Amino acid sequence: xxxxxxxxxxxxxxxxxxxxxxxxxxxxxxxxxxxxxxxxxxxxxxxxxxxxxxxxxxxxxxxxxxxxxxxxxxxxxxxxxxxxxxxxxxxxxxxxxxxxxxxxxxxxxxxxxxxxxxxxxxxxxxxxxxxxxxxxxxxxxxxxxxxxxxxxxxxxxxxxxxxxxxxxxxxxxxxxxxxxxxxxxxxxxxxxxxxxxxxxxxxxxxxxxxxxxxxxxxxxxxxxxxxxxxxxxxxxxxxxxxxxxxxxxxxxxxxxxxxxxxxxxxxxxxxxxxxxxxxxxxxxxxxxxxxxxxxxxxxxxxxxxxxxxxxxxxxxxxxxxxxxxxxxxxxxxxxxx
Length: 337
Ligand code: NAD
Ligand code: WQD
Prior knowledge:
Helix content is 41%, strand content 17%. By secondary structure, it is an alpha/beta fold. The chain has a 7-stranded parallel beta sheet with strand order 3-2-1-4-5-6-11, with helices on both faces. Strands 12-9-14 form a 3-stranded mixed beta sheet.
């Protein structure tokens, strides 16, 4: 298939491009490079052995450019990554987050419909479960109250796409609820490249390891978990990328609406991650226990069996691989791209 990849220069998008090409698909990327660099696309081309990845630098809210992209390319489906994703920033800039994530998706869906491309895979998030009612989380676990505007946009956009699919059953909509993506391509050539102080655990750890930050703050050690620190379902970004390729089966089978948790099904605490990182990479990560971070929950991990049953997809990498590959990327690219 020829696939429009919005946000394809970003962390998950760039890894997904590699798996798409490996599986014999082709892609057109649209990205405004707000949180990424075109260098990631050059490296994806090198890693996949193709001349270049077709790329349009544009904002998905720019309807005219999107129209042109659809007019100039035969596109079978869209994998929609483009969006703002910093939870804390979304609390201080709610309008920017609602504007970008909601309006961007509205324009995209409308242009897709006009060009009769009615197949979309959407980057959703475990955040839609709020403080989950069931652990491990299955897809039929009720959605919960999101504590921040970022999470609200994911939850609302899921609803928008479900309503759209119900109104017109020609649509195939796949909602992939990612758990905590970390790791990097094993080559160490592409990876996560956050601007400023990292919000997420793994980029913070790798920046301590590379000497950019002095010490990690561990946010809370009084949660009801095995060691008191927060437990999450970390997933290697290459496994996550492969889940998108597997999700294209929903389009091929004309399945309509499908929702999948994309995680490993294992919960690891903050200290499990820190200790694994230190052991695998033989590096000391100094840390201090800090107060809990507002909005955090104690435990979040999924039951990923539905994706295995219906898509034949299963995470292959473990926490050791994730820690090794995150470090391999950071040490080879201390300043990112
Ligand atoms: P990222 O920031 O690396 O990638 C997103 C890309 O979208 C960036 O390249 C950015 O420049 C681009 N973009 C943003 N707004 C745009 C717009 N209006 N027009 C065009 N391009 C735009 O983030 P990522 O980690 O690769 O995440 C990809 C998607 O997955 C996002 O939708 C994110 O919300 C979702 N997600 C991420 C995580 C995570 O922890 N990384 C977890 C769950 C869901
Ligand atoms: C993981 C654990 C922290 C940083 C977020 C979004 C979620 C999804 C994935 C997009 C928690 C602890 C963290 C640090 C720490 N993104 N931590 N020190 O919060 O589970 O999920 O990213 O959809 O929506 O909310 O990920 O990596 O920020 O935190 O102790 O410096 O690490 O408290 O227990 P989180 P995270």
